[in-house]
Design brief:
The protein is built from six helices and five strands. It is an alpha+beta fold and 173 residues long. About 8% of the residues have low confidence.
């Protein structure tokens, strides 16, 4: 009888720990991670600014040059490389600023003009291609999202959910 009581207590304790863990995961995933920078940061190649006026290379050439130094033009090793290659392919004239957030989330800052160069019917495809490049290389434990934002106002142009594959485009911004 005493053993049954102790097993019940242990079972209840495990359940409580599981519930606390689930609450922590939920709060981290939906409230903390999407708005906090990743303290580890990207590798140095991903931190470099593209489109600098003193840099003779275009953003596309800068990405290709960095990858060619690694000897790898087709299969990027990191999520940052993958998303930069995708950005160069779909928005070749843009000079995006990437902000790496906790939980595998990514915010990409562009000017309104750089985003509006893409015709409206093609914008969902562009956001999806950029998002998929990032999502193929990150862990999905915390339901990461890729968001494209206006660098001046912070307004969201569109987003891509790594977990569901859902693309969201703002109709009015």
């Amino acid at each position: 009888m005493a053993q049954g009581k102790s097993e019940e207590i242990v079972g209840s304790g495990c359940f409580i720990i599981l519930v606390i863990g689930a609450i922590w995961w939920f709060c981290y995933t939906f409230f903390y991670a999407p708005s906090h920078r990743d303290t580890g940061g990207p590798p140095p190649a991903a931190k470099s600014k593209q489109g600098n006026a003193t840099d003779p290379h275009t953003p596309e050439e800068a990405v290709r040059l960095a990858l060619s130094k690694q000897g790898n033009l087709t299969d990027p090793r990191t999520p940052e490389e993958a998303v930069r290659i995708a950005l160069v392919k779909v928005l070749p004239e843009a000079a995006p600023r990437l902000e790496f957030l906790q939980g595998g989330n990514l915010e990409i800052y562009l000017t309104r003009h750089e985003f509006e160069v893409v015709p409206y019917p093609d914008r969902a495809d562009v956001v999806q291609r950029i998002g998929e490049a990032w999502c193929k290389k990150v862990e999905h434990t915390y339901l990461p999202v890729v968001r494209l934002r206006d660098i001046r106002t912070g307004e969201e142009f569109g987003s891509f959910s790594c977990t569901t594959g859902h693309v969201s485009i703002r109709e009015h911004y």
